[in-house]
Every structure is written in C-alpha cells, then in structure tokens.
Amino acid sequence: MAAPPRAPDALWSMEGSLRRRGFTAVAGADEAGRGACAGPLVAAACILPAGRRGRVPGLADSKLLTAAARERVYAEVVARAVSWSVVVVDVPELDERGMHVTNIEALRRAVGGLDVPPDYVLTDGFPVSGLAQPTLAVWKGDRVAACVAAASVLAKVTRDRMMVDLHRRFPHYEFDVHKGYITDLHTAALDRFGPCPEHRHRFVNVARARDAHVARGGRPPMDDDGRVHQSPTPVESLR
After folding, report:
1. How far is the CA of 38 from the CAs of 58, 86, 169, in angstroms?
2. Is 44 helix (H, G, I), strand (E, B) or coil?
3. Is 70 in contact with 154 (CB distance < 8 Å)?
C-alpha cells in the first residue's frame, strides 16, 4: 500500500529543523531523466527562503503533479527562490561515462552552480560526495523536503521542454508524449525506426533496437553532422 501523502506543513519541517540548528541556507538537489533511454539528464538545485515566501503554492514531488501544475509551480519557484541552478547533461556524456557516475556529478555541478553558497545540502536518494557543505541523502527526498521537491520541479520542467524540442527534430519517436521513457509507443517507434543520436546507446534495449534495425538494412543513427553515431558497448539496462 502506498504511503499517504505528507501534510503540507510536513514538507517544510526538515528545512525548519535544519534552520533551527543554524543552517540558514538549505539547498535541495534532484534530477530528472535518470530512467529514460533517450534525451538528456537534467539536475537542479534550489534554496527556498524561510517563512511564508518559501511556502510555494502547490509544491510537491514533480512526479505527482500534472504538466500544467508543474509549470505553475516552476514559475513560483523561480520567482521565490533565494538561488537556483539547472545543469543539463547531454547523451554523449551519458553514453561515455555511464548513468550513475554522471548523475552524481550532475547533482554536484548543480549545487556548485548556486550563486548563494548553501550551508547544508539535501539530495534525493543518492549521497553526493565532494561537496564543501554537510549533506544528507534523503529517501524519496522530493516527497519529504520542500527544497528537494522544488529542485525536482525545476529539473522535470526543464527536461520536458527539451524533449518537446527534440520531438521537432525527431518526430517519428513522439518524444513530446513519453519524454524518452520506455512506453509501448516508444518501443514501437524504436522497433520500426531504430534509435536516433538522442537515444542512450549504452542501454541494452536501445542497442538491441539499433542492431535489429541495421540487420534489416536500415541506416545506423547519424550525428547532427551526418557521421555515423559511435555507440558505446551497452552495459546498462532499464528495469
């Protein structure tokens, strides 16, 4: 059974506790796109102000919000935040370095991109080493800490907008619908057309679709400059 949603005030309790301990600038960090097999990984960090101004209307884990609600919350977060930062990691870097290493580095870069140095950093799920500040990895942090929820919205909205732009370049895949995640629609397009350069060729399902497409006589995916995309050896799979 799913856990009941936290009461609105509970979303701000973790930051309130840290502020009472003297950590006045508490940053949250989260990413979007980790589970997708196409498109970029986007990481974000955010510091919300204390008091009523930090109580962003409608704020919640981005996955629990509709697209329209996310856009509204995004605008409120940008307007109210003490500082916020977004980092985009393109597919070539993901393919070269692997998801987990790149994910942690992206979160680190997002925190480093804040123009107000935080006193404390909360991350969603994954410990992030190498930061100057004390940090805490919080399980389902985007559901229990407002600053992490705000970061999740910043990352998700940024990435969704980018996937809509990618749909204009590669309309056959309908990235505007599934945002690069595996769905029946996306799988059918991969099977029919093979992958494009915006697919993560390190993932086994993409590599299999690529090999099957080429075996049928299809062209291998091309980079934007028209050269054959150099795909890495697949070592990761989606579950």
Report:
1. 29, 19, 13
2. strand
3. no
Rounded to the nearest 10°, the torsion over CA 115, 116, 117, 122 is -100
119 belongs to an annotated ligand binding site:
no
Under a CB-based contact definition with an 8 Å cutoff, are residues 27 and 118 in contact? yes
- Which is more confident, 205 or 8? 205
Show the tokens assigned to 76: 């409120």
- Whether residue 236 is annotated as binding a ligand: the answer is no
Give the largest CA-CA distance in the chain: 65
Any idea which architecture 9-165 has in CATH? 2-Layer Sandwich (3.30)
Angle, vertex CA 140, rays to CA 135 and CA 142, nearest 5: 80
Residue 30 annotated as binding?
Answer: yes
What residue has token string 């949603």? Answer: 5
Return the SS3 of 122: strand
The H or E element spanning position 42 is: strand 41-47
Question: pTM above 0.90?
Answer: no
